[in-house]
Specification:
Helices cover 18% and strands 18% of the residues. With 55 residues, it is an alpha+beta fold. The protein has one domain: 2-Layer Sandwich (Alpha-Beta Plaits), CATH 3.30.70.20. The strands form 2 sheets. A two-stranded antiparallel sheet has the order 1-4.
Length: 55
């Protein structure tokens, strides 16, 4: 299962650099491409507002 970013996302950019497969795209609320995400959880570990959770 891929991770998902909730509406709590503040678009701070912390998670983008942590993703080893570049599955996260920028926007007002960042998005994770479920077809690319490897479910490693690195993004969730660094999110300062805890907006990233397993889908």
């Amino acid at each position: 299962m891929a991770y998902k970013i909730s509406d709590d996302c503040t678009a701070c950019g912390t998670c983008i650099d942590e993703c080893p497969v570049e599955a996260i795209s920028e926007g007002d609320i960042y998005k994770i491409d479920p077809d690319i995400c490897t479910d490693c959880g690195a993004c969730a570990d660094v999110c300062p507002v805890e907006a990233i959770h397993p889908a």
